[in-house]
Design brief:
The structure is a single chain. Strand 4 and strand 5 form a beta hairpin. Strands 1, 2, 3, 4, 5, 6, 7, 8 and 9 form a nine-stranded antiparallel beta sheet that branches. By secondary structure, the protein is α+β, with helices and mostly antiparallel strands. The protein has four helices and nine strands, in the order βαβββββαααβββ. 46% of the residues are buried.
């Protein structure tokens, strides 16, 4: 497990909105499409701590993975196809794919249109609509509701109708982190190519990861 920084403001800058604790606090800052214009390996740690909601249900992103067209493990590596076309779309849109014919998984498209990069949402800490997520998942343990990309897909009712949709418009809501985040990193999960690349990122100390990060 590699710790990238004591806070995301060091090697991996955090996007923060001012923490306001008064009753008249302003709404949190929504992430715009230009937030996703950079490389996936840069966006993946910076989006940790962001609040992701779909139709009002969701929570805080605590684990991500980065993929790029130059990466042999990426769906985009061989170029555009009918399945992965949304991954080549404009930044700040959703790329949704079916994994192993069972689970719908959500990626946040990065880089300029035509490049082919994205950030896979591997786990979130559920904070909104827990009863809805529990009914969809058929269990009530909060730690297990969204600890894995397939679980995220089921809990948030992600499906093909969301593929290619902009992340700054309904049913999506995506809000910037309001505190600095300490980030850990390690190899990605479930891939056979470029498995040594440390493009998996997590909020340090979270109990909602899909799997533990390797010890340093």
């Amino acid at each position: 497990m590699k710790r990238l920084s004591t806070t995301c403001e060091d090697a991996v800058p955090a996007i923060r909105s001012e923490a306001r604790r008064s009753d008249d606090r302003q709404p949190p800052e929504r992430l715009a499409a230009d937030f996703f214009a950079g490389d996936a390996w840069d966006v993946a740690p910076r989006v940790l701590g962001a609040l992701l909601l779909i139709n009002g249900v969701g929570g805080r992103i605590v684990e991500t993975e980065a993929y790029d067209r130059a990466d042999p493990a990426s769906h985009s590596h061989a170029g555009p196809t009918a399945r992965n076309r949304a991954m080549f779309g404009p930044p700040g849109h959703a790329y949704v794919y079916l994994s192993y014919g069972i689970h719908w998984c959500l990626n946040l498209v990065c880089r300029e249109e035509g490049h082919g990069a994205g950030v896979l949402i591997r786990a979130i800490e559920p904070t909104r609509g827990l009863d809805v997520m529990a009914a969809r998942r058929g269990l009530s343990e909060p730690r297990l509701l969204c600890s894995g990309p397939g679980r995220v897909g089921q809990a948030l009712a992600i499906g093909p109708l969301l593929n290619g949709k902009p992340l700054d418009q309904p049913p999506f809501e995506l809000y910037a982190p309001d505190t600095a985040i300490e980030v850990v990193s390690g190899p990605r999960i479930g891939i056979s190519k470029a498995a040594e690349t440390s493009w998996r990122f997590g909020v340090a100390g979270s109990r909602y990861w899909s799997r533990p990060f390797p010890a340093a």
